[in-house]
Write a structure and sequence with these properties.
693 residues, mainly beta, twelve-stranded antiparallel beta sheet, nine-stranded antiparallel beta sheet
Length: 693
């Protein structure tokens, strides 16, 4: 796979801010060198683009290169070798068992084919750099992860010669067998052998795993859902991949390895963030059977960015959204492949006021001021096999940014067995849906007032004070205290409900006229705790999930917190995020915030056929905090005001001020102007005797 290799940050800033020469564009190229002895994976720096003259191995302190061939991500060539070299062996030895038990098999199966799903075995679990993968059998119907069977096999895929690969263990009907031959022998000759009989499911609208309409359709007769429109045209401009929206401007990108990112994020000309983006996605399962027990996915190994494509207007994004294509170059391609509608950009009204206040009574001023929260959304939807992850960057007119991840898609299941009870509920006669933990890691390289920043918390605590009215009585109240963090080790944050705090980043030399730091606040709204023991088993492949926040000094060789090898490399991680954190000072430095979001998911019947997004929003916000003298949204024409038509003469009625905007007329609806003319006292007090409690 090829991807953009980012230039050193200081060279980019010199180009953007000081008119210095533009850094050379370079590519990051990963190659599986199966031709070498021993085979390895190599990553190269290739440039300058688009007419390269050099290709050098990438060297860095946080990531070794080359990497053992055993740790390479699963890829199409390997799957092809498995299908053509090993699946025929499976069918040859136990195909008759598969037909009797499940009504299908893997090879020469016509309409009754079985599918398989890989579960890589982390090298820490076997304490050796050997490539092993469990493959779980499923029915090849819509959708196969809800039709898991109690059959799987452990393959040893060591080396680059598929003729040397082998099946090491087999799981069938709740029992482990040492080989395919062992299963075949016991199935034929041991009367105590557990046997399964399941009928091959047939595709129909009533198959619960499909998303076809069934039940009692509503509404009846059909009525279309609400639509949104842009009555005066789009209020944003996209040139190439640079976006301008009101006071915002930034660049957007979709990395093949890590997914969606935005760069050089500015508001009113000030850079707020140099980089915001996904660094890694992981989901760790649990279960009784050996396949589900070892299903620990770290998704950069699946090339996260390449899985955002084919966004559907009217569902995935509004029909009026701007859809962007993305080109990638990977294995099996002679020329780059363009993914149509890989990202979308759109403005929407969130349906919640950004701010509002009604001062109804004449004695309180008699006015209304409010503003809709219209935002710009940059969206990618990453369909990584069964799960779909909606990743949004949301830009508000208040100067706030929201980074959001939402899960939907199909759950993973196990064949029903009473021993699976601690790990999931039985959802139908044949499957259990296993508990799992979704984790998302984001990188936020902030430049608040420049690249010299501090990280502080405002620690909220209780204090006891004297009640002034009764000097002998003590009174409890809360206060806050500023806490400056000096080193990366000190700035590792694990959420504690008993110690509430604000997280702020600021430049000590940039303050308000009152001496208050002009800061941005990090607000996390989707934290979860990783419960696995630190440093044991596959936990070593996701050290970034040990805390909800880490603050480090920006380094060019700490581009991402993980690597595409993390699915296998738990024995000796290629990238170990814990090494990013040291006793290095973080005071007045170029700081990066690494934010972990997550949720534990215990599936239930309402997750069939597909998990709904409701309640699954995980996000963090970057909120201006004393950065502006007032909320910058006061300059937006979206502000709306209702006041007396004639000051001090309420009986003259009311007027509506839309700050130059036309009336946003909805078909068949009465306008606000008509309402305030007809019933002014329903909005503000225009007659003394009319008083609303």
């Amino acid at each position: 796979m090829m991807d953009l290799l980012l230039p050193p940050k200081q060279r980019v800033l010199s180009f953007l801010d000081s008119q210095r020469p533009q850094p050379a564009r370079e590519a990051r190229v990963m190659i599986f060198r199966g031709d070498k002895m021993p085979p390895v994976v190599e990553e190269y720096r290739v440039g300058p683009l688009s007419n390269p003259t050099y290709a050098n191995l990438i060297n860095g302190t946080q990531r070794r290169n080359p990497v053992s061939f055993s740790l390479r991500p699963l890829a199409n060539v390997e799957f092809g070798a498995i299908i053509h070299h090993l699946l025929p062996v499976v069918d040859q030895k136990v195909g008759h068992i598969l037909l009797e038990s499940y009504g299908g098999k893997f090879w020469d199966c016509d309409a009754n084919c079985l599918n398989f799903y890989p579960a890589p075995v982390g090298t820490e679990l076997i304490r050796t750099m050997t490539r092993k993968v469990w493959f779980m059998a499923n029915y090849h119907v819509e959708y196969y992860t809800l039709h898991t069977l109690d059959f799987g096999f452990l393959m040893n895929l060591e080396g680059s010669d598929p003729t040397q690969w082998s099946v090491e263990q087999v799981w069938y009907s709740g029992t482990m067998y040492s080989s395919l031959d062992d299963l075949a022998d016991k199935y034929a000759n041991d009367p105590t052998t557990n046997k399964t009989r399941v009928e091959y499911p047939r595709d129909s609208p009533d198959l619960t795993s499909t998303q076809r309409l069934r039940g009692i359709p509503k509404p009846d007769p059909p009525q279309r859902p609400p639509l949104q429109m842009e009555p005066d045209g789009k209020r944003y401009i996209i040139h190439h991949r640079h976006v301008r929206y009101l006071h915002w401007d930034f660049d957007i990108r979709l990395s093949a390895f890590t997914g969606p990112q935005v760069y050089n994020v500015r508001f009113q000309g000030d850079r707020i963030a140099y980089e915001l983006g996904v660094s890694e996605i992981a989901v760790f399962y649990a279960g009784y059977n050996p396949m589900q027990r070892l299903t620990n996915f770290v998704d950069s190994g699946a090339l996260i960015g390449t899985h955002s494509k084919s966004l559907i207007p009217g569902v995935d994004c509004p029909e009026g959204a701007t859809f962007l294509n993305v080109s990638f170059f990977g294995e099996g391609m002679e020329v780059p492949t363009t993914l149509e509608r890989a990202q979308c950009v759109f403005e929407q009204d969130t349906g919640v006021p950004l701010r509002r206040h009604l001062s109804y009574a004449r004695s309180e001023g008699a006015f209304y001021g409010g503003m809709s929260d219209s935002v710009l959304v940059v969206r990618s939807i990453l369909t990584i096999v069964n799960y779909d992850y909606i990743v949004d960057f949301v830009f508000h007119q208040s100067g706030a940014i929201e980074c959001r991840a939402i899960s939907t898609g199909y759950i993973m299941s196990s064949f029903y067995n009473a021993d699976e009870a601690p790990y999931g509920f039985r959802l139908n006669a044949e499957i259990v849906a296993n508990i799992h933990h979704h984790m998302f890691h984001f990188k936020a390289d902030l430049d608040i007032g420049g690249t010299s920043n501090r990280y502080e918390t405002l620690d909220i605590s209780e204090e006891e004070v004297q009640l002034r009215q009764v000097p002998t009585t003590k009174y409890k109240q809360i206060k806050f205290q500023r806490h400056l963090y000096n080193t990366e080790n000190e700035a590792v944050y694990k959420y504690n409900f008993d110690a509430p705090m604000y997280h702020i980043v600021h430049n000590e030399d940039k303050k308000t006229k009152h001496g208050v730091p002009r800061a941005f606040r990090l607000h996390m709204a989707g934290v979860s705790k990783q419960l696995l023991t630190l440093g044991e088993n596959n936990e070593k492949s996701i050290p970034w999930a040990r805390q909800q926040l880490a603050v480090t000094v920006q380094k060019d060789d700490e581009l991402v917190s993980s690597s595409p090898f993390a699915m296998f490399d738990s024995y000796n991680p290629v990238t170990d995020f814990s090494n990013f954190i040291s006793d290095e000072s973080i005071v007045d430095k170029d700081l990066v915030l690494w934010v972990t979001l997550g949720t534990h998911h215990i599936p239930h019947t309402e997750d069939i056929p597909v998990t709904p997004t409701v309640g699954g929003h995980l996000s963090f916000f970057l909120l201006p905090y004393n950065y502006f003298p007032e909320c910058p949204s006061v300059s937006s024409r979206d502000n709306l005001r209702v006041e007396y038509a004639t000051p001090n003469t309420p009986a003259d009625g009311l007027k509506v001020d839309r700050n130059g905007n036309k009336v946003n007329q909805v078909c068949g609806a009465v306008t606000l102007e008509q309402l305030v003319q007809k019933e002014p006292d329903h909005f503000l007090q225009t007659h003394e005797e009319f008083n609303l409690l």
